[in-house]
Design brief:
This protein is of the alpha+beta class and about 475 residues long. The protein folds into three domains: about 30 residues, no CATH class; about 200 residues, v583 fold (Alpha-Beta Complex); about 210 residues, Enterococcus faecalis V583 domain (Enterococcus faecalis V583 fold). About 40% of the residues lie in helices and about 20% in strands. The strands form six sheets. Strands 7-6-3-8 form a four-stranded antiparallel β-sheet. Strands 11-10-9-13 form a four-stranded antiparallel β-sheet, with helices on both faces. Strand 1, helix 2 and strand 2 form a beta-alpha-beta unit. The longest helix is centred in the middle third of the chain and has 25 residues. The radius of gyration is 23 Å and the shape is globular. The chain starts with a helix and ends with a helix.
Length: about 475
């Protein structure tokens, strides 16, 4: 005992981080163990997971293999009504899990209003509100129609969409064209300038881009995303490198296939001035990869993680099309001048499909500039990604992080690990104003809420126990 007292004290701290900070203040060597107790669940759930452990492990390996083997390619552009399964004139698709008009958040209602004016169902916002609530319009999640949409995620019949095909498994996914930043439909804006831009995108931009893509044949999106990770993107909130790489492919073919020099210049400038242009391709690329891994019996891997501004919803490979939901949280964000967290809408959009596929917040170590949104440092970005390895099934063999010696990004969120380790998926995101018609007010980060994952684990266990 005397010898122990004479030695230098070295402390392993488990629990509150503040204990270590106190030791640091008096120069006592210490290591903090980042540990939390598991999320509290019924003991029978834990026993059932143990009982089916080998079956779950085999199913998860099969699921992740399909995700990793997927080969998303941009093959075409078409109008939504011509290619999206189940699309019709009076159907509006939205981001996140199912939601009625009455329960929609402000920015989603604003985007619906804009879509109704765009489609000719209404002449002004007042008429659009009446039509939206009349029962004449049907609403459905993008995810239930092989589609994804950023922020409000609104897709209407006439909108042009990217067609992305999984060359490995043959399935397709769809997404609208990115409008750029500021007052845009996806953030709930519906002013005349928003509608004018949408019409230009339909009548001019879409036609030019469609010809260019046709002349190319197909574009390997996975390759672009992999290169972009090496150039500072995480292909969710930062797409500057990916957009530039895509631009290099598209530009010569736009020039070659467009007859009007002014239109050519306008189209090229529109892409050039929109650093987020590639987001609407990274999303369906991830969607088409994850959809190929759906409906694998016994798999606890998450294949959808999405928000509608009211609720946060997830789906598992092993539980079919069932949604598990909880209230959507408000992101921690850097707000534009004049706005605060009080103005922010709860988290919204299908863009967290990127995190579900091992990108976005999961790959933020490749894009540390993102954490500056909330005053973070490079080490915070590294720590966020390292945490995500704790709740995933595999490491991507194509998407790699240079700072981590080109380690593959953490891929295949396992709902069991999320609950066991009490580590929630990390997401970076844009922030919409809670009132319709205003648009984007900032960008930030957040962790997914725990409630959907608890419900999903219960639903998963009920299913595997019934077999």
């Amino acid at each position: 005992m005397k010898d122990l007292i004479k030695k230098e004290i070295r402390v392993i701290n488990i629990g509150l981080q503040s204990f270590k900070e106190t030791l640091d203040a008096v120069n006592v060597p210490s290591v903090h163990v980042d540990w939390k107790p598991p999320v509290e669940v019924d003991e029978d759930i834990i026993k059932s997971i143990k009982r089916h452990e080998e079956r779950i492990k085999a199913a998860n390996l099969k699921t992740v293999k399909r995700i990793l083997n997927s080969k998303p390619h941009l093959i075409d552009l078409q109008r939504a009504i011509d290619v999206i399964p189940g699309m019709k004139k009076n159907l509006i698709l939205h981001a996140g899990p199912p939601v009625t008009w009455e329960r929609m958040c402000g920015p989603m209602k604003g985007a619906v209003v804009g879509a109704l004016i765009y489609e000719g169902f209404a002449k002004n916002p007042e008429e659009a509100h009446k039509v939206a609530a009349s029962g004449e319009i049907e609403y459905s999640p993008c995810h239930e129609h092989a589609t994804v949409g950023p922020m409000a995620g609104i897709v209407s019949a006439s909108m042009p969409v990217f067609v992305v095909k999984n060359e490995e498994y043959g399935n397709t996914a769809f997404c609208t064209i990115n409008e750029g930043l500021g007052k845009v439909l996806r953030y709930g804006a519906f002013s005349d300038e928003v509608i004018v831009k949408l019409k230009w995108m339909e009548d001019v931009f879409y036609q030019v881009l469609k010809k260019a893509v046709k002349s190319i044949g197909k574009i390997d999106l996975k390759s672009i995303m992999a290169q972009a990770l090496h150039m500072g993107d995480e292909v969710h909130n930062r797409n500057r490198a990916a957009t530039s790489l895509l631009y290099r492919i598209l530009a010569p073919n736009i020039v070659k296939t467009s007859d009007d020099t002014k239109i050519t210049a306008d189209v090229l400038n529109f892409i050039h001035n929109n650093d987020h242009f590639f987001l609407n391709l990274s999303m369906p690329a991830c969607k088409v990869s994850l959809d190929s891994a759906r409906n694998i019996d016994g798999s606890s891997v998450v294949v959808t993680m999405s928000r509608n501004g009211t609720e946060f919803g997830i789906q598992l490979s092993g539980t079919g099309d069932e949604w598990f939901t909880g209230p959507a949280p408000v992101p921690d964000a850097l707000f534009f001048p004049g706005f605060t967290k009080e103005d922010a809408n709860p988290d919204i959009g299908d863009s967290s499909i990127t995190e579900t596929n091992g990108l976005g917040g999961f790959a933020i170590a490749a894009s540390p500039a993102i954490v500056q949104f909330v005053g973070g440092k490079t080490k915070d970005a590294i720590n966020y990604t390292m945490q995500m390895y704790e709740i995933t099934t595999a490491e991507n063999d194509v998407f790699q992080i240079p700072y981590l010696n080109f380690r593959g990004t953490p891929t295949g969120i396992d709902v069991i690990k999320v609950i066991e380790k009490n580590i929630l998926p990390f997401i970076d995101t844009g922030v919409a104003h809670r009132e319709p018609g205003i648009g984007q007010v900032g960008a930030g980060v957040l962790n997914a809420p725990v409630e959907p994952f608890k419900k999903a684990l219960e639903g998963f266990v009920n299913k595997i126990s019934a077999v």
